[in-house]
Amino acid sequence: MPIIDQAGLRKSYLDLSSLETLCPPLLLLQAVILSGSTVWQHPDLQSQPEEVSRRLHHRAKALVDQRFEQDRLTLVVAHLLFSTYTCDSCDDTIQNMWLSLGSAVRIAQGLGMHRDLGSAATDSKHRRQWKKVWWTLVLHDTLCSFEWGRPRAIHLADSDVPELQQSDFEPTEPGALACAEHIDFFLAAISLCFIINDWLDCLRPGGRAKGSYRLRREQGSQRAQEELQSWLSGLPPTMNPNRPPSQHTLWSGTLHVAYYTAVIRFDSIAGANAQVVHDAATAISKICLSLFEQDLINSIWVFAIHQLYLAMCQHARESRDPDPSISARGLQNLQESLPVLKKLGAKNSVARQAFIFLDEVSKGEILPHPDNWHHSDFSPWNIDSLPWQFPGFDQLPQTPGTCKKGTTSHDLARAKDTEKRLQ
């Protein structure tokens, strides 16, 4: 995320003993440390990674709650960094990416960052910083909605901020050099988000849009597929789309994982071509496996974890295909990707839960064969007909109050309602 002047932050942090140096904001420092704890662990720390991140989050959040920091731009950046941390709890109302990004967007819009500064009396450094932070918000808000299926906080029709250019990434510190690969990655990711944004607009069920919703979705998905091909052909050499998965760097690999995820989702509505979906899911797994072998997998952004999970779910689906060749191919891809998910699970609860589930799927302990899903006795209301009962279900003792065979959840609800009426 190009939202922090790394050279300036390091310089001010290392020169804290100097009275002439302006100290970095305490909230910003705590947010940076929190974000770093989600991908790296100091060897001297004995606590679990989740516990370290949880304590750092409480400490940084306390500064926000006590209104310790008054600078609004620092608050926006801090909430952006908070979004990299996900609370390891079933209650995701405590902390998750969607909530943190929503807070960051609202603060930014209240500050007016969604509007062009125009002829305002601000220096070029300040203008570039505002633009980079705003477009980072757009990028993360779009991908968060794309992965989680939740409404976006930013609609581009409400903003007139100019698009980013190469010149906006010129370093301000003397002697510092910009990394061309980082810049190309970010600009290409923003362009990809424009396509995803238009596609998400086609999926909005409400509003005053005219015409058939299904037709609008299909046409929008087909149009997005065409734009996606144009986007791919226009990538710079540093993001070369023709390189094999084993030669991807962290930046090009992360970008192409997002691209193949878009291919899967667009095709699922436009035409559901099984071969296209298979090739895209395989490419995601191969790229992540390559980053795993390069010891770079922990540096991917959190969106890539969800995208890898999507690809592995496709492998799991193929592993249950009646065709033996497709089934063997899907199972092989699934088993090859499991070590990647296991390593990510050491620091990310989503990856850890996904690994537990898909590991059991690969062993045949979960998910029945698709041929058994449409059994004549199968009903979502009948507990005994559910095909994913755990092993030993039939051997459970029939104690008082236990459901008898043939009892349905509808029967239980009706019995409880009758009992309340009698009372």
TrEMBL record:
<feature type="domain" description="Xylanolytic transcriptional activator regulatory">
    <location>
        <begin position="97"/>
        <end position="170"/>
    </location>
</feature>
<keyword id="KW-0862">Zinc</keyword>
<feature type="region of interest" description="Disordered">
    <location>
        <begin position="397"/>
        <end position="423"/>
    </location>
</feature>
<dbReference type="GO" id="GO:0003677">
    <property type="term" value="F:DNA binding"/>
</dbReference>
<keyword id="KW-0539">Nucleus</keyword>
<feature type="compositionally biased region" description="Basic and acidic residues">
    <location>
        <begin position="411"/>
        <end position="423"/>
    </location>
</feature>
<feature type="compositionally biased region" description="Polar residues">
    <location>
        <begin position="397"/>
        <end position="410"/>
    </location>
</feature>
<keyword id="KW-0804">Transcription</keyword>
<protein>
    <recommendedName>
        <fullName>Xylanolytic transcriptional activator regulatory domain-containing protein</fullName>
    </recommendedName>
</protein>
<dbReference type="InterPro" id="IPR007219">
    <property type="entry name" value="XnlR_reg_dom"/>
</dbReference>
<dbReference type="GO" id="GO:0008270">
    <property type="term" value="F:zinc ion binding"/>
</dbReference>
<dbReference type="GO" id="GO:0006351">
    <property type="term" value="P:DNA-templated transcription"/>
</dbReference>
<keyword id="KW-0238">DNA-binding</keyword>
<keyword id="KW-0805">Transcription regulation</keyword>
<dbReference type="InterPro" id="IPR052073">
    <property type="entry name" value="Amide_Lactam_Regulators"/>
</dbReference>
<dbReference type="Pfam" id="PF04082">
    <property type="entry name" value="Fungal_trans"/>
</dbReference>
